[in-house]
Design a protein that fits this description.
This protein has about 350 residues and is an alpha/beta fold. The protein contains 9 helices and 20 strands. The chain is globular. The model has no long low-confidence stretch (mean pLDDT about 95). The structure holds aspartic acid. Aspartic acid binds next to loops.
């Protein structure tokens, strides 16, 4: 049986930081020296190849152009590797994982994002375990086929569907959660896969959608939200879709000016998607009086999607040219396991 092969894609972030031999400060490491920093990687029964962004970034600087580059790297190398590991900063990892899940349609191989809370070059780092296990999972085959045909995040012993994750801790090693979908695998002494939670092998051909639209936006509701702020965002001429981050099961302040502003936006062709500010549970428009009129106005209930997934899905659907009814249908359907059917 041939050894599995994994492409390691380095984008930057804390995971790639080591102490500079001269100054002692933390600096991004040079991927060419990965085996000096992590000799353990050589012991894995996996063929590993490496590629890096030209300029590694703090993931706070991630843009759709970076996602396009990552999707392009995976597309070009897809036939040659059994799996892919993306080393990424934690701050926007859930956004990138969500974006890639939509950009890579009919993905038949694992794409695992991982990072760390402490730099690779520090004594108590979590980078080593995260990276080694992510590579092991990316290389894992079942009956000679990749075991995990989806984009996932591996962090502190949990493998999670990428578009279900959110970063919830700046402090703990256990920094990510998948509040509305069970973990896909847990790494203890053995890596235990939860096969019922993992997506099925895709039926269609692998297709990469590199473009993401920049015509989406986000409006969080909060006590005291002003008409000026809402009309400022909804009035942006190029806006084609907005994610409304609401209270609880999808509630907004019951104010005529807000309902009128949403109605006018929908009338202008702007899609409005309702996601909850709660991390667990889903939007149920009409459960309370404060959300009852939203469905009638054409506001789309975002079920249990995270903000990160809803935004990435919006950018993807708009780039595909999906509008009005088609956008509504796709937004409320599960395209990559990003929402639970109600
Ligand atoms: N700011 C860093 C980043 O997201 C934090 C991290 O890597 O954990 O790139």
């Amino acid at each position: 049986m041939k050894a599995s092969s994994v492409l390691l894609i380095y984008t930057g972030g804390t995971i790639g930081m080591v102490h500079d031999g001269v100054s002692g400060s933390l600096i991004p490491f040079d991927l060419r020296h990965i085996y000096d920093v992590m000799p353990e990687l050589k012991r894995l029964p996996v063929t590993i190849d490496f590629v890096s962004l030209d300029v590694p970034i703090d993931s706070s600087d991630v843009t759709p152009a970076v996602w396009e580059r990552l999707a392009g790297i995976i597309e070009v190398n897809y036939p040659d590797f059994d799996g892919f590991v993306v080393m990424h900063g934690t701050d926007t990892m859930a956004y990138t994982a969500s974006a890639l899940s939509f950009m890579l349609e009919n993905l038949g191989k694992p794409v695992i994002l991982t990072g760390s809370q402490l730099p690779l070059g520090t004594l108590r780092t979590d980078a080593r375990e995260n990276l080694i296990t992510a590579v092991e999972i990316a290389a894992s085959l079942a009956n000679d086929a990749p075991r995990l045909p989806e984009v996932a995040v591996y962090f502190e012993s949990k493998l999670m569907r990428g578009n279900r994750t959110t970063k919830y801790s700046t402090e703990n090693f256990d920094a990510f959660d998948s509040p509305n979908h069970p973990v896909l695998a847990e790494a203890g002494i053995h890596i235990l896969y939860n096969s019922t939670a993992i997506l099925q092998e895709p039926a269609g051909p692998f297709t990469v959608h590199r473009r993401m639209s920049d015509r989406g936006g986000v409006v969080p509701v909060f006590p005291g939200i002003s008409p000026d702020l809402v009309s400022g965002v909804l009035g942006v001429e190029s806006l084609e879709a907005v994610i409304l981050q609401t209270y609880g099961s999808g509630n907004i302040p019951r104010q005529d000016w807000l309902l009128n502003a949403l109605e006018a936006a929908v009338h202008r062709g702007v899609a409005v998607v309702n996601v909850t500010q709660c991390s667990r549970g889903f939007v149920e428009q009409g459960l309370y009086e404060n959300s009852r009129r939203l469905t009638g106005l054409g506001v789309i209930g975002g079920a249990d999607m995270t903000l990160e997934a809803a935004l990435a899905k919006t950018m993807h659907l708009l780039a595909l040219g999906c509008r009005s009814e088609a956008f509504h249908r796709a937004m409320t359907a599960s395209l990559r396991g990003e929402l639970s059917p109600v």
